[in-house]
C-alpha cells in the first residue's frame, strides 16, 4: 500500500513522536504560554481572568527601580563572583597538577562543597556568619587578640551581597578547579617539555602554552557559572531574604516574589522573558568566543 | 565492629532515655472543655498543611483522638514564609492536595473571596453541639470577626491568637542600683516605657559594653537595650506598632493613604533611632533571633509575639526564667493621651479546602485542634500557639505548670491588655503585596539606604500602583468591608 520510503518515514515519525510530545508539552507550550502571559495582565490575587495589555509589562519593568536594583545585584554577583571563582579555581588546579600521589585526597576534599546542596550550604553559612555565635567573627576576634571585631556580615548593606558572593565562591570554585584541572591534564606533555627546553620558565609556560590551550575549557566553565549565578535564588532566600533593605535582592528572587508571593503572573512572565533574552545573548557571546578560540589555536 | 556496635547501643540508650522526657512534656487532656469526638470515619486520610515546626505539634499530641475518629492524619510541612505561595499555587491549580489548610488570616480575603475555602457555618450549626459546635462566642472578638469571617460567613477557625506585646527584664527594672542610676541620668523613675520616646531612653540606658556593670554584675558580653524584627518579612509590623499609635490609619475610606504623613515619618524615625541600642546584626533578626537574644539574656526589653514569655519560662532554653515582665506596647502621645497599638501580625487559622474529598472529617480535625484541645495547645511551651479564647484567659492554672500561677496570671493579664490595644494586619486581597511594599521600604530606611520620608513616599506610590493594578473600585469595596469589621470589634476608634 505504501512505498518502503514512506513507510520508513512513518516508522521514524512514530519513534520520534513520544519525545516530540514530551518536548511540546513540557518545554515549547510553557514557553509560548509564558510569552503570551508577558503581554497580559493576570492578577491571581483578585481574579483568574487574563487581559491583553500589549507591552505594558515590559514598559513597567524598564521603569521599575526595584527591577534594576535586582539586575545590578545579579550582575555584580555574576561578574565579580564568577571572576573570583575563575582565578581561585585556576590557582587550585595548578597547585593540584603539581601534587603527586596525595592529589586524589586533596581533590576529594576540595570537591566536597560542590556535593552539598545549596540549601544546606545556605544554612551552614547563616550560622557561620552569625554575629553573636558564628565562628567567623569568633575567629576574627580571637586571632586579632580582641582588637578586631567582625562586621554583622548579613545585616550590613555593605557586606551582605559580598557575603552571598563568598558563599557562592566557596561552593563553586571547586567546579571551576575541576574543569581547569581536566584541561591541564589534556595538554600534551611534549608541548610543555618543549617550552621548558626552550628556556620558558613556569610562568612563561603557563601564560604562553597552558593558558591559551585552556581558554576553550575556561570559556565553557565561565558560561556554565555565569548562567547559574544569574539565577541565584536559594542563597538569597536563606541568608538574607533579599535584605537588608533591597541590598541583596537578585533578579531571580524578585521574579519569585512577583510570581509566587504577589501572583502577578503577567509581570512575572515579562521579567522572566527579559532574563531569558539576556541569558541567550550572554550564551551566544561565549559560544562565539569559544568557537573562535578553537579555530585560532595557539598564537 | 565492636565500636560500631557500641555506638549504636549508645544511641539506642539515649533514645530510650529521651522517650520518657518527651512523653512527660506532651500535654494531656485537662478536662476543661466538654466535647464529644465525631463518629468513626472508618480510616479516611485527612491531609493537613501548615508552616513547619512546633505549631503542627498538636496533631502529634492528639493522634490517639484522631485514631478514635477513624482519621489518619497526613502532615505536609511548608516553610513559614511560603505558606501563602504553596496554598495559592495548589488552590489555583485545583489539585485537591490538602483538606485542612493552616494559613495566616491576612489571606482570608484572598482565599475565601476566590472560593478556595468551604464555608463552615453548616458544620458549626449541626447537632449534637458537643460534636460540631466550636463555641465561636468564646473566641475573642478580634479573632472571631477578623480572622474567621469573610463577607459575613465563617471560613476558618482560629488556632493561634497572635498579638505583639512588650516584654522586659523585670529583675533589671526592679533593681535598686539601676533605678537610682536611671533617676540620676534622666530625672524620672525607671519603668517599662509608656511612650516610644521613653522607649529610646530606656533602651539607651541599658545598652552597655562588655566589662560594664549591670545590676551589680560585670558583663562578659555586650548588653543591649532592645532589638527589633529587622529582617525582611515582618519589620513592617514592628513599624506599624508605632505608626498606628501615632494616628496613621493606612488608608481612608477611598484608599487614599496616609503612610507618608508626618506622623508616619516620625514613627519610622523612632524605629531607626532604636537600632543604635540594638545588637549590630539586628537587621538580620527574624523571630528566632529576636526570641533567642531576649531569652538568652542579651536584651533589656523587646516587643514580640505572645508565645515568647512561655519560651522564657522554659529552663531548658531560657536564661531568664522568672525574670520577665509583660506590658503594653508603647505608644505616641496623641491629643494629650498615649495611644497604644499592638499589631496582630500572623496568627493562624485552619480552614477546609473547597475541593477536599473528606470535608466532614477535615472539619472534625479542625474543630478538635481549634476548640476541644485548644487550651492544652496554647499552654505548653512545645508549641508557639497563643491564647485566643476567653477560656484560655480564664484558666491560668493551665499555664501554671509552665510558669507558675502568679506569672501565668500576669502573662494572661498582659495579653488581655495587648489585645485591647490590638491593631489588625491588612487582610484584604492583595495584602501580601501591600505588606511587602511597606516592608521593603521600612527595611531600606532601617538599613540607611534611604531616609524615612523617601521610604514612605515610595510606599505611598507603590500602594497606589497596587490598588490601581488590582482594580481600585474592588479594592475600595474590600477595604470598606474590612473597616466595618474593624469598627464592629472596636479595633478602630
Structure in a nutshell:
Chain A is an all-alpha fold.
Structure, explained:
- The complex is a heterodimer of chains A (299) and B (493).
- Chain A is built from twelve helices and two strands.
- Chain A has 299 residues and is an all-alpha fold.
- Chain A has a single domain, classed as MetI-like fold (Orthogonal Bundle).
- Chain A has a two-stranded antiparallel sheet.
- The longest helix of chain A has 35 residues.
- The radius of gyration of chain A is 25 Å and the shape is flat.
- By secondary structure, chain B is of the alpha+beta class.
- Chain B contains 23 helices and 16 strands.
- A five-stranded mixed beta sheet of chain B has the order 2-1-3-15-6, with helices on both faces.
Which class of chain A in CATH terms?
Mainly Alpha
Q: Taking all residues together, what is the mean pLDDT of chain B?
A: 91
Major sheet description of chain A: 2 strands, antiparallel
Mean pLDDT of chain A: 91
Distance between the termini of chain A: 62 Å
Q: Tell me which protein chains meet in the greatest interface and how many residues each side has.
A: A-B, 32 and 41 residues
| Number of β-strand runs of chain A | 2
Structural class of chain A: mainly alpha
Rg from alpha-carbon coordinates of chain B: 23 Å
Residues in helix, % of chain B:
40-55%
Helices and strands of chain A, in order, run as HEEHHHHHHHHHHH
What fraction strand of chain B?
Answer: 5-15%
Question: Helices and strands in order, then pairings?
Answer:
The complex is a heterodimer of chains A (299) and B (493).
Chain A: H1 4-38, E1 40-41, E2 51-52, H2 56-62, H3 65-98, H4 103-115, H5 118-128, H6 135-143, H7 160-185, H8 189-197, H9 202-230, H10 234-239, H11 251-261, H12 265-296
Antiparallel strand pairs in A: 1-2
Helix pairs in contact in A: 1-12, 2-12, 3-7, 3-9, 3-11, 4-7, 7-9, 8-9, 9-12, 11-12
Chain B: H1 2-25, E1 44-51, H2 57-61, H3 63-68, E2 71-78, H4 83-93, E3 100-103, H5 108-113, H6 121-125, H7 129-132, H8 141-147, E4 149-150, E5 153-154, E6 156-160, E7 164-169, H9 170-173, H10 176-186, H11 196-206, E8 213-214, E9 217-218, H12 235-245, H13 262-274, H14 287-295, E10 301-305, H15 308-312, E11 324-327, E12 331-334, E13 337-340, E14 342-344, E15 348-352, H16 359-372, H17 374-378, H18 390-393, H19 396-403, H20 405-420, E16 422-424, H21 431-446, H22 452-470, H23 472-488
Parallel strand pairs in B: 1-2, 1-3, 14-16
Antiparallel strand pairs in B: 3-15, 4-5, 6-15, 7-10, 7-11, 8-9, 12-13
Amino acid at each position: 500500500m505504501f512505498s518502503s520510503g514512506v513507510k520508513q518515514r512513518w516508522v521514524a515519525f512514530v519513534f520520534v513522536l513520544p519525545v516530540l510530545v514530551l518536548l511540546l508539552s513540557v518545554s515549547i507550550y510553557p514557553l509560548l504560554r509564558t510569552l503570551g502571559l508577558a503581554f497580559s495582565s493576570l492578577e491571581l490575587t483578585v481574579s483568574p481572568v487574563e487581559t491583553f495589555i500589549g507591552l505594558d509589562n515590559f514598559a513597567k519593568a524598564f521603569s521599575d527601580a526595584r527591577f534594576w536594583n535586582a539586575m545590578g545585584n545579579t550582575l555584580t554577583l555574576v561578574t565579580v563572583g564568577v571572576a573570583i571563582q575563575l582565578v581561585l579555581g585556576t590557582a587550585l588546579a595548578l597547585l593540584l597538577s603539581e601534587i603527586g600521589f596525595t592529589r586524589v585526597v586533596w581533590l576529594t576534599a576540595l570537591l566536597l562543597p560542590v556535593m552539598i546542596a545549596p540549601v544546606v550550604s545556605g544554612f551552614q553559612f547563616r550560622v557561620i556568619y552569625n554575629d553573636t555565635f558564628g565562628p567567623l567573627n569568633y575567629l576574627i576576634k580571637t586571632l586579632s587578640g580582641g582588637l578586631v571585631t567582625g562586621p554583622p556580615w548579613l545585616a550590613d548593606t555593605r557586606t551582605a551581597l559580598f557575603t552571598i558572593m563568598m558563599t557562592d565562591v566557596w561552593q563553586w570554585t571547586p567546579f571551576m578547579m575541576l574543569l581547569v584541572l581536566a584541561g591541564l591534564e589534556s595538554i600534551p606533555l611534549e608541548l610543555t617539555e618543549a617550552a621548558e627546553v626552550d628556556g620558558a620558565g613556569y610562568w612563561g609556560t603557563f601564560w604562553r602554552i597552558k593558558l591559551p590551550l585552556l581558554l576553550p575549557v575556561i570559556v565553557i566553565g565561565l558560561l556554565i557559572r555565569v548562567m547559574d549565578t544569574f539565577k541565584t535564588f536559594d542563597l538569597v532566600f536563606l541568608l538574607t531574604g533579599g535584605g537588608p533593605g533591597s541590598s541583596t535582592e537578585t533578579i531571580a528572587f524578585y521574579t519569585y516574589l512577583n510570581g509566587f508571593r504577589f501572583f502577578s503572573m503577567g509581570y512575572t512572565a515579562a521579567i522572566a522573558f527579559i532574563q531569558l533574552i539576556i541569558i541567550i545573548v550572554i550564551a551566544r557571546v561565549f559560544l562565539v568566543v569559544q568557537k573562535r578560540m578553537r579555530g585560532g589555536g595557539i598564537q | 565492629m565492636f565500636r560500631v556496635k557500641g555506638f549504636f547501643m549508645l544511641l539506642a540508650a539515649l533514645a530510650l532515655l529521651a522517650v520518657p522526657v518527651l512523653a512527660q512534656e506532651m500535654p494531656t487532656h485537662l478536662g476543661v472543655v466538654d466535647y464529644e469526638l465525631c463518629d468513626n470515619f472508618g480510616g479516611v486520610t485527612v491531609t493537613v498543611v501548615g508552616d513547619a515546626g512546633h505549631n503542627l505539634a498538636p496533631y502529634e499530641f492528639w493522634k490517639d483522638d484522631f485514631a478514635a475518629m477513624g482519621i489518619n492524619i497526613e502532615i505536609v510541612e511548608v516553610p513559614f514564609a511560603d505558606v501563602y505561595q504553596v496554598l495559592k499555587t495548589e488552590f489555583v491549580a485545583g489539585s485537591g492536595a490538602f483538606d485542612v489548610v493552616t494559613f495566616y488570616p491576612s489571606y482570608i480575603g484572598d482565599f475565601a473571596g476566590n472560593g478556595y475555602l468551604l464555608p463552615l457555618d453548616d458544620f458549626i450549626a449541626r447537632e449534637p453541639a458537643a460534636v460540631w459546635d466550636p463555641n465561636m462566642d468564646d473566641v475573642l472578638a478580634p479573632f472571631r470577626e477578623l480572622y474567621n469571617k469573610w463577607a459575613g460567613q465563617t471560613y476558618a477557625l482560629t488556632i493561634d491568637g497572635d498579638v505583639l506585646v512588650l516584654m522586659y527584664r523585670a529583675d533589671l527594672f526592679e533593681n535598686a542600683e539601676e533605678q537610682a542610676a536611671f533617676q540620676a541620668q534622666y530625672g524620672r523613675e525607671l519603668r517599662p516605657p509608656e511612650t516610644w520616646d521613653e522607649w529610646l531612653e530606656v533602651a539607651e540606658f541599658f545598652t552597655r559594653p562588655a566589662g560594664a556593670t549591670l545590676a551589680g554584675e560585670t558583663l562578659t558580653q555586650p548588653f543591649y537595650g532592645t532589638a527589633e524584627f529587622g529582617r525582611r518579612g515582618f519589620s513592617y509590623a514592628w513599624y506599624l506598632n508605632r505608626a498606628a499609635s501615632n494616628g496613621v490609619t493606612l488608608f481612608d475610606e477611598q484608599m487614599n493613604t496616609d503612610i507618608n504623613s508626618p506622623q508616619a515619618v516620625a514613627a519610622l524615625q523612632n524605629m531607626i533611632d532604636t537600632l543604635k541600642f540594638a545588637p549590630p546584626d539586628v537587621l538580620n533578626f527574624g523571630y528566632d533571633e529576636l526570641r533567642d537574644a531576649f531569652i538568652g539574656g542579651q536584651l533589656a526589653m523587646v516587643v514580640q509575639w505572645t508565645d515568647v514569655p512561655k519560651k522564657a519560662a522554659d529552663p531548658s532554653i531560657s536564661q531568664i526564667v522568672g525574670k520577665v515582665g509583660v506590658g503594653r506596647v508603647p505608644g505616641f502621645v496623641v491629643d494629650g493621651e498615649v495611644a497604644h497599638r499592638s499589631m496582630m501580625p500572623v496568627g493562624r487559622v485552619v480552614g477546609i479546602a473547597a475541593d477536599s474529598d473528606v470535608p466532614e472529617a477535615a472539619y472534625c480535625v479542625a474543630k478538635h485542634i481549634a476548640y476541644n484541645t485548644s487550651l492544652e495547645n496554647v499552654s505548653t511551651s512545645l508549641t508557639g500557639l497563643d491564647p485566643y479564647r476567653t477560656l484560655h484567659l480564664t484558666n491560668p492554672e493551665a499555664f501554671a505548670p509552665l510558669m507558675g500561677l502568679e506569672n501565668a496570671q500576669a502573662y494572661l493579664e498582659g495579653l488581655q491588655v495587648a489585645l485591647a490595644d490590638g491593631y489588625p494586619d491588612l487582610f484584604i486581597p492583595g495584602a501580601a503585596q501591600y505588606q511587602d511594599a511597606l516592608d521593603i521600604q521600612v527595611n531600606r530606611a532601617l538599613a540607611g539606604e534611604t531616609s524615612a520620608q523617601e521610604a514612605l513616599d515610595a510606599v505611598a506610590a507603590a500602594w497606589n500602583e497596587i490598588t490601581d493594578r488590582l482594580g481600585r473600585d474592588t479594592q475600595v469595596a474590600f477595604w470598606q468591608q474590612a473597616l466595618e469589621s474593624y469598627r464592629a470589634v472596636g479595633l478602630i476608634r
